[in-house]
């Protein structure tokens, strides 16, 4: 499971980690039933504190996406709701657009342009 964080992202690290894990589940890199690497390994790979990863995992568990099992680690329970997943991706897009100085209205205009180009 390859996760990356954007160092320029203004969101707290635990939110970025949660979004990265959700993305991995949504895109099928990790599927329901798969076990996630230990929090320490994820933290080392991402260059963050293990407590940051644990906070993210707990939030995703509370959302019903992950399951904690003593002695078996953390497993993916289900995929996120498609609409909720899209909301997360759009939020990420808006955050990235803001880093480039592009406002929400401009992003919407780009989406409309692309919709008109699509068959």
- What is the count of distinct domains? 1
Output the structural class. Answer: mainly alpha
Helix content: 55-70%
Measured distance between first and last alpha carbons: 34 Å
CATH architectural label:
Orthogonal Bundle
The total count of strands amounts to: 2
| Strand order of the biggest β-sheet | 1-2
The CATH C-level name is: Mainly Alpha
| Cα-based radius of gyration, to the nearest Å | 16 Å
Strand content: 5-15%
What composes the largest sheet? 2 strands, antiparallel
**Which regions have little confidence, pLDDT < 50, spanning 5+ residues?**
none
Per CATH, the superfamily is Winged helix-like DNA-binding domain superfamily/Winged helix DNA-binding domain
Stated plainly, the CATH topology is called Arc Repressor Mutant, subunit A
For the residues shown, what is the average pLDDT? 91
Query: What characteristic shape results from the CA principal axes?
Result: globular
Note down, in words, how this protein is organized.
This protein has 119 residues and is mainly alpha-helical. The chain has one domain: Winged helix-like DNA-binding domain superfamily/Winged helix DNA-binding domain (Arc Repressor Mutant, subunit A), CATH 1.10.10.10. Helices cover 56% and strands 7% of the residues. The chain has five helices and two strands; from the N terminus they run αααββαα. It has helices spanning 13-26, 39-46, 50-62, 82-99, 104-117, and strands spanning 66-69, 73-76. Strands 1-2 form a two-stranded antiparallel ribbon. Strand 1 (66-69) and strand 2 (73-76) form a beta hairpin. Helix 1 packs across helix 3, helix 1 crosses helix 4 (82-99) and helix 2 (39-46) packs across helix 3 (50-62). The longest helix has 18 residues, at 82-99. The chain starts with 12 loop residues before the first helix and ends with a helix. The mean pLDDT is 91.
